[in-house]
Batch of 2 targets.
Target 1
Amino acid sequence: AFKDATGALLGGTNMAAIHLADAVGGSLFLGFISAVAFATILAVVSGLTLAGASAVSHDLYASVIKKGKANETDELRVSKYTTVVLGVVAIGLGILFEKQNIAFMVGLAFSIAASCNFPVLFLSMFWSRLTTRGAVYGGWLGLVSAVTLMILGPTVWVKVLGHAQAIFPYEYPALFSMGLAFVGIWFFSITDSSQNAADEHAKFLPQFVRSQTGLGASGATSH
């Protein structure tokens, strides 16, 4: 009842939980899990859209482009434009990856996070030689390599773009891109001889002790 003429699951593999609820509990379970799925999708989409629009309008536009001199009207306008752009991009990617398994796509997102965010966070907490230049260049190296290898891998190069064989043979690029990020952070940090790097080295130990023990942390203030 839940398969088409070819024997494939109706709606694809992402509909497995919905069909299971219908088979076990009938219309009651089907309606419940459908409502939960809709609410979850709505919450995730709205939250990510709001976070992306806020990051572009406040962090990128107001803080970087306008150097902190943007007014609220301009920020609001940029936020609206960003919301529309993010919506169009999300819809396009949703159509492009329509047949992909959702759980698999989450794994790909974690691969990007592991390649870009994790090395910077880990080394900033435990390596005293880390510099801002190393974190920025190494983080970018991990991000670009992860996205590039993902496009060249079987998921996009074969299943989405329709090529016969993938250039990069593995579906998850984190093992390689995360390694590149660590190497990039290490290299660009140890080769940074600027005064800013020396200041960051000197600040690491007090910051590490304060983060682990709380000694030296600021007390409560009265406003």
Target 2
Amino acid sequence: MSDISHSYVCEPCWYIYDPAIGDPEHGIPPGTAFEDIPDDWVCPDCGMGKEYFIAKLE
């Protein structure tokens, strides 16, 4: 089961991926855990890959 309770932040630009919101403009529906995003998805703000995201400490 994937965890949708944690947000992730893009280290280069500080974009926050919130699983509750997703990224609908780029095909990621609300409720999608970060781990379930396709590996070729990139940050919508700066274009960096998933490997540049870290779990946001709540």
